Structures are given as structure tokens and as C-alpha cells.
Amino acid sequence: MPGSPLYLATSRPFLRRLSALSRRTFYRQATGPSTANAVVGATVAACVGVYAYTSYAVEQVRSHRNGAPMQFVERNFVGSARNIKEGRYWTLLTHTFTHFTLPHLAFNMIGLWSFGRPIVMLFGVPSFVALWIGSGVSGALLTLRMEERNRLQQRSFIGASGSVLGLGAVFACQFPKGKMLILPIPFPISNWIATLGFAAWSVYAQDNGLGSNIGHLGHLGGMAFGAVFWLARLGLRR
């Protein structure tokens, strides 16, 4: 549908526009569609690979009472205060590749494909990598800090949402007048309105205990990093 992030990220007119922008001096680090597809595709493949292993680990526990694969996942691909206290700092990043359910994986990969390719095409691979890492780690650190500060129940966290929303925040800052379709809303919404609205909802949901299985703090941390990154790395150079 025209106006949805998926359409914007894959339509030929939009890709031609990105290619034209990438030739400007400001976008010297930009790259073409083929490289963008390869980089984002590799990130999707990494997430799918981790999902396949976690599914195997779950099946091992369920059918064979073999907890070793799941223990490996929990110690290396799940974010938690325990992992940080025990020195497994890499989980601040590796949790972004982990999904235990297919819908969770699918929604995040759609967002990654929609936002990731334009980011790579406009700003280059280094910026994409920095955004993925910075947004995911920022979301994890905010989650851990607020849990400790407010004495909340410490929970583990997984998923690419923080990183994807960091990319989405940059996309919204770069194309504020563009539109995206967010289900179940039946009409397109301006990027900036959708982004601010989602941030406001995340704050409200976190404060009121809505969606206890959703990492609202991770979402907010990722979006905040994306917005700051755009202002510092991109916006101030205009």
C-alpha cells in the first residue's frame, strides 16, 4: 500500500529517490540497493538463525528433557540483570537477535526490512551498524537501569524491537512528512505522528503496567538513541 513503510522501502520510485539523494555530498557514505539488500538481509538471516536454534532448544527441553541448549541461549542470547552481574556483557547486544515466537520474529523482521534498507542506502553501512548496536544496547541499559531504580521485578528481555525502532526513529526524522501504515489502524499516519504516538503509548503502558510481556523500556531506549543519533550525526550537518 502506498504510504506504508513496506511500500516506501521497496517501491521503485522511492528507491530511485534514495539513489539520487545518495549522490549528494551529504550522503557520501550512502550505498546502492544491492548492498542495502545484502546488509539488511544478512541481519535478517542472523535473527532467523538464532530463532531456529532457540526453537531447537525449546524442543530439546520439551521432548528430551535436555536443558543444555536452552541454558546456552539464556546465558548468551538473553538480556538480564543476572547475565550482566555475571560478566556476560555481550548479551546487551546479542539479545537483539533472539526471538522465541514466530510472530515476534516476523513483525520485527518486517520493520527491519522496511526501515533498514533506506537507512543503509542513505547513510551507509557504518551508520546502520552503529544504529543497530546503539539502539539495542541503549534499550537494554534503560531497561536494566529503570528496573534497578524503581525496584521493579527483574525480567529477561529479548528481541530486535529496540534496534528496529531506533532505525524507525531515524527514518521518521529524515522523512517526517512520509506516511506509514500501522495495523490495526485502517489509514496511513504521518511518520512523525506515528513515532511520537508510539513513544507516548510506550510511556503510558510502562507506567500503568500494560503489556507486561512487552519491553516498553527497550522500545523507548532504542527510539531515543535513534533520535539523538540523527540529531548529532545527521541533523546538525544540514
What does the secondary structure layout of this molecule look like, with pairings?
Elements: H1 5-10, H2 12-22, H3 33-64, H4 68-76, H5 81-85, H6 91-94, H7 102-123, H8 125-149, H9 161-174, E1 179-180, E2 189-190, H10 191-208, H11 216-234
Antiparallel strand pairs: 1-2
Helix pairs in contact: 2-7, 3-4, 3-7, 7-8, 7-9, 8-9, 8-11, 9-11, 10-11
Order of helices and strands: HHHHHHHHHEEHH
Structural class: mainly alpha
Count the beta strands: 2
The helix content, as a percent range, equals: 55-70%
Overall mean confidence score, pLDDT = 87
How would you describe what is shown here?
The protein has 238 residues and is mostly helical. 69% of the residues lie in helices and 2% in strands. It has eleven helices and two strands, in the order H-H-H-H-H-H-H-H-H-E-E-H-H. The protein has helices at residues 5-10, 12-22, 33-64, 68-76, 81-85, 91-94, 102-123, 125-149, 161-174, 191-208, 216-234, and strands at 179-180, 189-190. The chain has a two-stranded antiparallel sheet with strand order 1-2. Helix 7 runs parallel beside helix 9. The longest helix is centred in the first third of the chain and has 32 residues, at 33-64. It starts with a helix and ends with a helix. The model is unreliable at 1-10 (pLDDT under 50).
Summary keywords:
two-stranded antiparallel ribbon, 2 strands, 2% strand
Entry summary:
The chain is mainly α and 238 residues long.
